[in-house]
Amino acid sequence: MVLRPFLDALLSEARQARAAPPALDYRFDEPMAAHTTFRVGGPADLWLRPGGDLLPRFAGLLFRRAREAGVPVFILGGGANLVVSDRGIRGVVLDTGAWAGIRREGEDLYVRSGTPVDEAAEYCARQGRAGLEFLAGMPGTLGGAVWMNARCYERSLSDILAEAEILDPDGADAGPIRVPRSPGDFGYKRSPFQGRGALILGALLRSSGGDPEEIRRKMAEHRGDRERKGHYRYPSAGSVFKNNRDFGASAGRIIDELGLRGLRLGGACVAPWHGNIIINTGGASAADIRSLSELVAARVKAERGLELEPEILFAGEWGDSQH
Ligand SMILES: Cc1cc2nc3c(=O)[nH]c(=O)nc-3n(C[C@H](O)[C@H](O)[C@H](O)COP(=O)(O)OP(=O)(O)OC[C@H]3O[C@@H](n4cnc5c(N)ncnc54)[C@H](O)[C@@H]3O)c2cc1C
After folding, report:
1. What is the pLDDT of residue 107?
2. Are 44 and 146 in contact (CB under 8 A)?
3. Would you state the pLDDT for residue 322?
4. Which CATH number fits the domain 4-95, given the four candidates 3.90.1580.10, 3.30.70.260, 3.30.43.10, 3.60.10.10?
5. Residue 145 C-alpha to ligand 1 middle, in angstroms?
6. Which residue has its alpha carbon closest to ligand 1 atom 12?
7. Whose CA is nearest to atom 28 of ligand 1?
8. 303 CA distance to ligand 1 centroid (A)?
9. Can 4-95 and 102-228 be said to share one CATH topology?
């Protein structure tokens, strides 16, 4: 998709509306491997990373123009849960990475969506606030964690979410809206934003006063645990499959029991130390990772009769479809 005329028209309208970001990083045919923790993924037709404070207004214009022109928009956080196809992503990738920042709102914290969750946890610790320790060491941004309802150490992002601020592509002209958390909307790795296309601009997170030493101790424990579990040893996207209580064991345990650790396909490999992590040993393609995950799921289905559900997201153009 040739998007130079689209971008020119968008920027011209944004300048007239005083909604042009003061710093706008953009590239055509940008390899997504540079923006995902798996280090795989072909080119995005147009990758945009707006800096400054104008993202809400700029994104509103982008959504409207994209809808009129039939250009898909994919929202990118830290790329920590993504397998982007080798063919890449058609249309625009809106990278939220420069939309970062944290401020106190009374007892709560307002965190912009592009802020790494580890930084949000650090900020909290510096302020002597408790509640975000479980996020220490987890890759990705706050926006991605809200969208995924990220979960670790027995806590989900929704446990600390008071409200999310979003921009709905269909109501983008009306501007950002704040959506209070409604308990039924969130579940295990499920949020009301999945499948909706809304841009999460930020979130109000609950925190409480805490003992700074205890906060630091918990954060160090979580980071250390991830180190020991080999989370950062090779490029990956963390857990490949969701856990399912009905299976009686974690996805990792089931895969281990079938002896699938170390199973290889091209440059992709089931981590020799953890059944539910696939790693890029160097030179893996997105297709290698996808095929290996399908192979593992097929073996679990054949030998245990259980249907593993992927937690990692397959994004971009796969075969005939774009996710
Ligand atoms: C080593 C490692 C360990 C991990 N451990 C865990 C873990 O313990 N628990 C866990 O839950 N996950 C874990 N993950 C996965 C990942 O860290 C989380 O899923 C994280 O929340 C993804 O955030 P992200 O910003 O990278 O999102 P991305 O991967 O960029 O995107 C994920 C989805 O969110 C959407 N999205 C992102 N930002 C926005 C936004 N601002 N507005 C709207 N939509 C948005 C994207 O379109 C996409 O659909 C791990 C990953 C790695 C690499």
Report:
1. 87
2. no
3. 58
4. 3.30.43.10
5. 5
6. 150
7. 79
8. 30
9. no
What pLDDT is attached to residue 170? 85
Q: What confidence score (pLDDT) does residue 171 get? A: 79
**Residue 154, pLDDT score:** 95
For tokens 């040739």, name the residue.
2
Catalytic residue among 30, 133, 165, 311: 311
Active-site choice (239, 293, 307, 317): 239
Q: What is the pLDDT of residue 323?
A: 60
In this prediction, residue 1 carries a pLDDT of: 86
- How far apart are the C-alpha atoms of 209 and 245, rounded to whole Å? 33
Beta bridge partners of 31: 43
Per-residue pLDDT at 172: 74
Cβ of 80 closer than 6 Å to ligand 1, yes or no, is yes
Topology of the domain comprising 245-322: 3.90.78
Rounded distance, CA 51 to CA 302, Å?
Answer: 49
CATH class of 102-228: alpha beta
Nearest-5° Cα angle at 192, 190 to 193: 100
Give catalytic status of residue 239 as yes or no: yes
The helix/strand/coil state of 286 is: helix
- 147 C-beta closer than 6 A to ligand 1: yes
Domain ranges of the chain: 4-95, 102-228, 245-322
pLDDT at position 180: 95
The three-class DSSP label of residue 117 is helix
The CA distance from 110 to 25, in Å, is 25
pLDDT of the residue at 215? 97
Question: pLDDT value at position 196?
Answer: 87
- List of the chain residues with pLDDT < 50: none
In the sheet with 108-112, reading across from the earlier edge strand, the strands are: 102-105, 108-112, 199-205, 161-167, 177-180
